[in-house]
Amino acid sequence: MSKLPNEHKFVDLSDYGRPIARIIANSLKETSYTPIHVTIGFVISGLIAIYCILFDYLWSAAFFLILKSILDAADGELARLKNTPSYTGRYLDSISDIILNFFIFLAIWYTTEVHLTYSFLAFIGIQLQGTLYNYYYVILRNNSNGDTTSRIFEYDTPFAMKGETQENVNLLFAIYKFLYGAFDKTIYMLDPNAYKSKRFPSFFMTAISIFGLGFQLLITSMMLVLGYKDYIISFFIFYTLLIFLFIGIRKFL
Q1: Is the confidence at residue 145, as pLDDT, over 80?
Q2: Which of 130, 146, 149, 178 has the fewest CB atoms found within 10 Å of its own CB?
Q3: What is the pTM of this model?
């Protein structure tokens, strides 16, 4: 199942794991496993990848980063297959992503000679990249009758959906706001009128999908196995400058 109607679909370069994710989701459809279980699975995969980075098992680290990306897609697929969308799953997914990203870059810093300040800047950079991509993607989904579990503006605590408790939604939303609030506000300040766009061209969404977490993990994995671990942090710092290019293109379009 897709987050978008067929007429609005685009080639998502960060979503390369979707075919395998669908296989995983379909295999779990008639079982007692829930999307939350799959989310826990990608957290475990991410933690194993961090361990492998710390001890220089770089091929294994790359494998588990890619597996994490695949499972990250599978939890949403399973939620749509079972018709059990939830804000609990949506916020738990995002919270897990940002915490894992932080420790991935911390592990890269620890095993290289890059200064901690630059590692922090790279982490901020990838979060801003992902926030910009998600901002445009969520606008597109909301304006084209796609999946609306993610909201354009995460200002107020949403009402719990069927099958989840309001207490869990309240707690996870509060954590989400604490971790993502500054990134959301920064991107909104840089492009406050994007939500007025009726749609974005497919080629534009494909181009900006290089900011998606899956593509970021793919780049990281490739640099690890090719022997460029020392350059990962500096790469993502400069990669962040493309934010201004994409915002400029969006405004031109």
Answers
A1: no
A2: 178
A3: 0.93
